[in-house]
Design brief:
Blueprint: H1 11-19, H2 27-32, H3 44-54, H4 57-71, E1 75-77, H5 94-115, H6 119-122, H7 126-145, E2 150-151, H8 158-161, E3 168-169, H9 171-190, H10 210-226, H11 233-245, E4 259-262, E5 281-283, H12 285-293, H13 299-302, H14 310-318, E6 355-361, E7 364-370, E8 396-400, H15 402-414, H16 422-444, H17 454-462, H18 472-486, H19 491-501, E9 516-517, E10 520-521, H20 538-549
Antiparallel strand pairs: 1-5, 2-3, 4-8, 6-7, 9-10
Helix pairs in contact: 1-3, 3-5, 4-19, 5-7, 7-9, 7-10, 9-10, 10-11, 15-16, 15-18, 16-18, 18-19
Length: about 575
């Protein structure tokens, strides 16, 4: 299935950039400078916000490569690189600033600009305002998910009321506000109003199509509601039942409907901070072995084969490095333990070293360095990897997927919160995820890409560790392992899913490796440090932290990364 490239960084971004460019964290500056012309089309501001959601190379380098992909044990520091500091994150959480600086303020300004238009002109912007609200809620939820309380209800309104010290809303309050906003936005889009201003190509996700945004808004309602399972499962059930019962509202029906970004074949996700080689990651042993042993069709899309091709083995034999009796191992997928202490284990020292050989080639000594272990498939993250240049590769960033929708429905049925066929939901989710990663790999033009084998997919779903069989606990574990794997390309989502479910788990079906440092167990972080504002708003910031501490789970220090935000209840 051929996918369409939807990003065209055109006039929308250029004009929005001229209107709203700033590098400040101050709410006063964010809300009062520069002046925005009320004559400008409001929809031009949308593109800058949408672009800022996905064009986040700084987040990838620090949050994802350095921490989240390793915390979630998709990858581990490659041989020759260090795993120190893994549990004391720094230079992270830049999406927080990005939300206020580049995303939300543009979206809030869209509504303000529409409200300032003559009443006869406002009706034409109903859909634009509704779509902007959906994107704003997504950004706010993503910021809060790992920060807890954030400025929301009073944030970014200083142009209206000169309030430069917004309060921090609790997650409990925001969850209700977000659901209300999403419900209202979907209702507006569902009216099928005529004579609407269009976002067109300025909407890099759906080209302004209302029906697509309706489904995205509903799935986002479901996803946010799932976070309430630890606190208020009755609210989760009520929201999901409401969304599912309204057939006209719509959900994703296939991968073609899901909320994702697909780049053009140039000038995106190429080099710089996108380059995983700056923070090289090898496959984590448990994850790779689970996928290899169960013949997961996504294996080659998540991880690369090692360097030992048949030709290389022959060369090493001919060069006198390997004995003549050495044989080629066709497996070529091998991972490293994730536990930092394993690097100090003398019995494992050889696998944490890069293999460097000196061999004879045409009578001359040649030094070669060879990867014995598999690398994380870095071509999915950096289109310049491997053959680089004008290779026609395109980057995909999932935001909300059809597979995740299926897994949410399967879990809710198994938990008895809604009715339905859990097995069908689960198997549809597995198939959708495999197809989505096949599409990503083909678009990224990864090395050794092979077309998806439907027979292999069917065999995978029928294999004992994957098949939808077992007790309720086993079924929930299998569902959430597949949901977790589906978030490989969005490691912040994998982190959130793991916090919500505790899956993968130590000694589980997909075994999560216990981390130790000098023999002492170390917990995986569960939140970011709430960024400190300017002096003017530090009272509200401090009050927010003290409020979050009341649960006893936030931690005693601001930088207690193993503490929990409100939704992440023990």
């Amino acid at each position: 299935m051929k996918m369409k490239a939807v990003n065209k960084w055109g006039i929308g971004v250029a004009v929005a950039g001229m209107f709203l460019s700033s590098c400040t964290k101050n709410f006063a500056d964010l809300n009062t400078s520069p002046v925005i012309s009320q004559d400008a089309p409001p929809e031009l501001l949308f593109t800058q916000s949408a672009k800022s959601v996905v064009d986040r190379d700084f987040d990838w380098f620090y949050d994802c490569y350095s921490y989240q992909l390793q915390w979630m044990q998709f990858g581990t520091a490659a041989p020759g690189s260090s795993a120190t500091g893994l549990f004391s994150p720094n230079n992270t959480n830049n999406f927080y600033q990005g939300f206020y600086k580049d995303i939300a303020r543009n979206l809030v300004e869209i509504e303000a600009m529409v409200n300032n238009k003559p009443e006869s002109d406002r009706a034409a912007y109903a859909n634009v305002v509704a779509i902007a609200k959906i994107l704003k809620v997504y950004g706010a939820w993503r910021v809060s998910d790992a920060n807890g309380s954030i400025p929301y209800s009073e944030a970014l309104k200083a142009r209206e009321n000169q309030n430069f010290t917004p309060v921090y809303d609790t997650q409990e309050k925001m969850f209700d506000a977000w659901d209300k906003e999403l419900k209202e936005a979907v209702a507006v889009l569902g009216k099928k109003l005529g004579s609407q201003a269009g976002l067109g190509t300025g909407d890099i996700f759906y080209s302004g199509k209302a029906d697509k945004w309706i489904a995205a808004g509903n799935v986002l309602r479901m996803k946010i509601a799932m976070r309430l399972l630890k606190r208020a499962p009755e609210k989760t059930a009520a929201i999901v039942k409401e969304v599912v019962a309204n057939a006209d509202a719509g959900l994703f029906k296939s991968n073609a409907d899901e909320w994702k970004f697909i780049s053009a074949d140039n000038n995106f996700a190429r080099g710089g901070n996108w380059n995983m080689d700056n923070s090289p990651l090898s496959a984590s042993q448990n994850m790779l072995n689970y996928m290899y042993d169960n013949k997961d069709p996504r294996l080659g899309l998540f991880f690369e084969k090692n360097s030992y091709t048949p030709e290389l083995v022959d060369s090493l034999k001919n060069g006198g490095v390997f004995p003549a009796t050495a044989t080629y191992n066709p497996r070529r997928y091998f991972g490293l333990p994730s536990n930092p202490d394993k690097r100090a284990d003398k019995n494992l020292a050889s696998i944490f070293e890069r293999k460097q050989y000196t061999m004879k080639f045409n009578g001359t000594n040649v030094d070669v360095t060879i990867d014995t272990v598999s690398r994380v498939q870095h071509r999915l993250f950096n289109l310049d990897a491997e053959n680089g240049g004008a290779n026609g590769a395109r980057y995909t960033q999932p935001i909300l997927t059809y597979a995740e929708q299926c897994f949410m429905m399967a879990e809710l049925v198994v938990r008895g919160l809604i009715s339905g066929d859990a097995k069908t939901y689960y198997e549809s989710g597995v198939k959708a995820s495999i197809q989505a990663y096949d599409d990503m790999g083909r678009e990224a033009k990864i090395r050794d890409y092979a077309a998806l084998d439907n027979a292999a997919v069917a065999a995978y779903i029928a294999s004992p560790a994957i098949a939808f069989t077992g007790s309720q606990d086993v079924l929930l574990e299998k569902i959430n392992i597949q949901n977790f794997l589906n978030h490989f390309k969005s490691p912040w989502e994998a982190w959130g899913a793991w916090k919500r479910t505790g899956i993968p788990k130590v000694n589980g079906i997909l075994a999560f490796e216990q981390n130790t440092v000098s023999g002492v167990p170390v917990e995986v972080p569960r939140r970011w440090q709430l960024p400190q504002p300017t002096i003017a708003n530090q009272t509200n910031w401090r009050n927010a932290i003290e409020e979050m501490k009341k649960t006893g789970e936030y931690g005693t220090n601001d930088n207690d990364f193993t503490g929990r935000v409100w939704w992440d209840k023990k």
